From TrEMBL:
InterPro entries documented for this protein: RlmKL-like_Mtase, SAM-dependent_MTases_sf
Signal sequence, renumbered to the chain: none
A Pfam family per the record: UPF0020
PANTHER family xrefs: THUMP DOMAIN-CONTAINING, TRNA (GUANINE(6)-N2)-METHYLTRANSFERASE THUMP3
Organism whose genome encodes this protein: Candidatus Magasanikbacteria bacterium RIFOXYB1_FULL_40_15
Superkingdom of source: Bacteria
Protein's UniProt name: Ribosomal RNA large subunit methyltransferase K/L-like methyltransferase domain-containing protein
Length: 375
């Protein structure tokens, strides 16, 4: 059975939930065989198309397949490189192993008359620039097994959509495109179905959805500026990629009034990072934060009442609910029970927790990702 290592980003639990969702969408039969730090080990019943899977994922940095173990590390790598790079200069990198092994491998290969270059890898960009995925030359040793990298995250493409796009509203803040992708995957909606971001801001989720292959896009926001930014960013992406089969509609609307403009029972998935309150400086008192959480709870509950109407039966909502940090205390928004009463079930995103947190040390706010399914 082929064995893989998924090298995950900074939020391994979210990345793991995303991988499970993508495997289910791609009908991959798999078993998670282990976890170690940011490494997720998976065995599958047949080889997977790592490039295609990577093309969908937001939370995985690298996908690597285990090489058959025959003799010892050095001889196995020498045999592997001779077979995979049978002509021209051999180029390889080796992480997780004793550097002496890399030099031994280089020496043995040179003695067979081959031209060899050992590449020191600093980050995924250097794997891409040295064409090591195509050459099957990026090797790593993990838990005594040799892995060959089959796909790496297209980090430069993601950054281009992050920083290169024309319209970005610094007031509403921006969701990292990788997290947008993870959220879209968790929704598990077919590419032809209608998807909506009801708080679209500058359109990060919608642009990412188009980049992933979604063709029927709806977006809305209360702010005129946000709708203009979203329009500019979507147009920029469609022109960059020369896409002309994407249908998208944007509405200037309060999320709680969307049933006036969007047909009932029509949307398959809603993926949103809503308004999360006024930017925090860290010196706000508890009373201020509690007042803000009450207002946000009301905003989310009112929005969910309407979103329930426009969502199809069994449709889902992937929604960020912020948790605030004051000093060492976490303040959550109390809205889950009310959302359930409206007619939603919470679909837990992991065995350990119903939601998964995305946040960095030192931030005043963490983003909790939840999945709700219409009953
Ligand atoms: C955190 S931002 C979303 C950012 C977006 N994910 C992005 O990456 O660009 C929240 C957005 O919610 C909008 N908003 C606030 N209250 C709203 C409401 N009641 N209905 C719809 N949109 C609202 C704001 O105008 C803002 O653009």
């Amino acid at each position: 059975m082929p064995q893989y290592n998924f090298f995950l980003g900074n939020h391994p639990a979210l990345s793991t939930a995303e991988i499970k969702a993508v495997f289910s969408a791609e009908d991959v039969n798999y078993e998670i065989t282990g976890k170690k730090g940011k490494n997720l080990f998976v065995s599958t019943d047949k080889k997977i198309n790592s490039l295609k899977i990577m093309d969908k994922l937001g939370g995985t940095i690298k996908i690597a397949r285990a090489v058959d173990k025959k003799k010892d590390t050095v001889s196995d790598i020498v045999d592997f490189l001779q077979n995979t790079q049978s002509e021209g200069k051999i180029q390889f990198s080796l992480s997780g192993a004793d550097q002496k092994d890399a030099l031994k491998i280089k020496k043995i290969l040179k003695e067979t008359g081959r031209n060899v270059r050992y590449v020191e890898i600093k980050n995924t960009a250097s794997i891409i620039h040295n064409n090591l995925v195509e050459k099957q030359g990026d090797l790593s040793m993990i838990d005594g097994l040799i892995f060959v990298t089959e796909a790496v995250q297209p980090i430069e493409e993601l950054s281009r959509r992050d920083f290169g796009r024309p319209g970005s509203d610094s007031l509403s803040g921006m969701l990292p495109p990788k997290l947008a992708r993870i959220m879209i995957n968790l929704a598990d909606a077919p590419f032809a179905s209608k998807i909506l971001d009801a708080f679209c801001g500058s359109g990060t989720i919608l642009t990412e959805a188009i980049a992933m292959g979604y063709k029927n896009i709806f977006g809305s926001d209360l702010s005129e500026r946000a709708i203009e930014d979203t329009e500019t960013n979507i147009q920029w992406y469609l022109q960059e990629k020369n896409l002309n089969d994407i249908k998208y509609k944007l509405f200037l609307s309060d999320a709680a009034n969307l049933d006036n403009v969007i047909e009932k029972n029509s949307i398959q998935a809603i993926i949103s990072e809503p308004y999360m309150g006024k930017p925090l400086h860290g010196n706000e008192g508890k009373i201020y934060i509690l007042k803000q959480t009450e207002e946000l709870a009301q905003l989310y509950i009112n929005s969910f009442k309407t979103l329930h109407k426009i969502l199809r039966q069994d449709g889902s909502i992937i929604f960020i609910i912020p948790t605030f940090k004051i000093k060492n205390e976490l303040v959550k928004i109390d809205c889950i029970d009310e959302i359930k009463k409206i007619g939603f079930n919470v679909e837990p995103l992991s065995e350990e927790s119903p939601f998964l947190r995305y946040g960095r040390e030192g931030q005043h706010l963490a983003r909790d990702v939840w999945k709700f399914v219409k009953k």
